[in-house]
Amino acid sequence: MSGLRKLHYGAAITAICIFITIIRPVFSASPALPQNQPAAKPWETPRELVLFLAGKIQDPWNNIEAHYDVACADIAAGDKRRGTEVLKQMLARVDEMEESDGGIWGIDEKQGAYILVAWGLAHAGETEQAFNVVKKITDAWNKVITLREIASELSQSGNRSKAAAALKLAEHSASQIEDAHEKASALQEIAIAYAETGNSRQALELAESLLQTPPRTSKPRGRGSHSRREFHRKLWAALAALGAEAEAEAWAKRSPQSQPRKLSNEELALALVKAGNDKQAFEIVRMISDPQRKISLLLYLARAMHNAGRSKVSRQALTQAVDVARLVEDAPDRIESLREIAETMVGVGARTEALPVLQQAVEATQGIKKERTKERTLKKFAVELAEAGFKAEAVAAAQKIGRAEPRASALKEVERWSANRRSNERFLTSLGMIGAYVLSNSLLPTGGELLEISEAVNQHAAAGDHDRALQSSGQFKNAEDRVWARYQIGFALATESVPEQQESSSKRRMKRAFTPDEIIQARRIVEDIRGD
User: Fold this and answer.
1) DSSP 3-state assignment of 428?
2) Contact, 466 vs 491, CB < 8 A?
3) How far is CA 479 from CA 56, 409, 473, 476, 531, in A?
4) DSSP state of 430
5) For residue 183, what are the contacts with CB-CB under 8 A and spacing of at least 6?
6) In sequence order, which residues have a C-beta less than 8 Å from that of residue 409 and are 6 or more positions away?
7) Residues 6+ apart with CB under 8 A from 113
8) In angstroms, rounded to a whole number, what is the distance separating the alpha carbons of residues 66 and 511?
């Protein structure tokens, strides 16, 4: 069996991909798909390396996913032409794939691959081509979900008219769903998407048509699981964020169910962020008097803004959170607030800004009166500093522990985390997924052994020790697993994190060139895979 990959473009599509790679009993044994032929020395440039490694993957679905990663990395690097070329080549290969049993959701690898290609083309700005690929998706529900995600991408790039066109196509697809409740749920998704993309009139018109849908008589299961009340609240929030709260209220009063309760600050602020109205979201924060509630909401918004590609305003929210945390009088509460802020900073890629916040938290531990509590807190911060890659500061925090025994224990933990540090991004679309794959197969007799190997690959590669990562990957008994792990190591070497100020759906972008040391590492990966 081969690897689980978790994609990053919406829960529904993620679920499809997880199903494809976990639920099916075995991968197809069909021959490898035809590949591009890279240069004779594939270790000389990042792109040639990943194309060479992707071409070694025998499983058709994993092969498609690997090339999708390459396309996204090209697009994130600003090379949309090359990224689109890869996607078009993928499409030709997908067209040649055979349909397979889709199991409980009716989704097979070929359909899942079409979803990938459609999303990639939309991300590359090839909207019409993306729409043409959507036509190849035979399942109406998945066509709706794919079009909804394309609409979101178009809206975020400022093309609201095309976003509305995508949702109109989604409406047509929803009309083909036979199950009444599944159809209603698909239309609910579209109504919410209309509101979130700034089309309040279409959202209200569609919501009006849904008022006559009979309520479910049993708990919803599987696809289309929105309850009517949940739909009301999501649509209410999205419309309120557009300034159409009066229209939303009038619509809700005509509903056979009770009117939704007043939105919480968190719900309304998040809806405003989704609508791109960060200024009003900050106004909601300003009206909150309790410092800890204010910090909690600011962190919530910072993550949402970062996920929406607005890193600058995300940083503003985090800066405000730090200012508020300094006003928290109770020392333990202030320390915990600073820790949460630093953790969020690391999570959104602001690792450098997290360091002074963690250091403030360490200094604040001096106000803790109970010695044992202070020791535990300092050890916790020492480990967090080490895990974030700040070894010297981690050692300094551990050294503040008064008693020798807990101090030695903390220093030992710092050394362990520094040696095997997993960076915050955990290589996202690459190395971190190896561990998820092994966990998905943990019921196998060799699951424990595989988990150990996977963990070793993750730790060595995340610490930049590619030689030891490769040695660990060689311990996989299955050849396809070894190829997959080496592809992931190579992909991590050939790509880099997307800068925080760059708006991108991908978390990694293709490097322009290798350093001399990286060429040596790349050659080692190629030689290992050729010699296997």
Assistant:
1) coil
2) no
3) 11, 40, 10, 7, 12
4) S
5) 174, 175, 177, 224
6) 379
7) 61, 64, 90, 94, 97
8) 16
Per-residue pLDDT tens over the stretch 250-276: 776 666 554 555 567 777 777 777 777
Compute the residue count for the chain: 532
Q: Is residue 263 helix, strand or coil? A: coil
> How many CB atoms within 10 Å of residue 250?
11
The answer to pTM > 0.70 is no
C-alpha pair distances (Å), 60 with each of 67, 135, 137, 500: 11, 22, 18, 33
The two tokens of residue 298 are: 């600011």
> What is the residue whose two structure tokens read 């290798």?
514
- Strand 508-510 and strand 495-497: the pairing is antiparallel
421-477: per-residue pLDDT in tens?
443 333 323 333 333 333 333 333 333 444 455 555 555 555 555 566 566 556 566
Give tens-digit pLDDT for 167-188.
999 999 999 998 888 888 899 8
At 339 the pLDDT is: 87
Q: At what angle do helices 109-123 and 60-76 cross, to 10 degrees?
A: 10
Exposure string over 415-439, b if 16+ CB within 10 A, otherwise e: eebbebbbbbbebbbbbbbbbbbbe
Contact 9, 117 (CB under 8 A): no
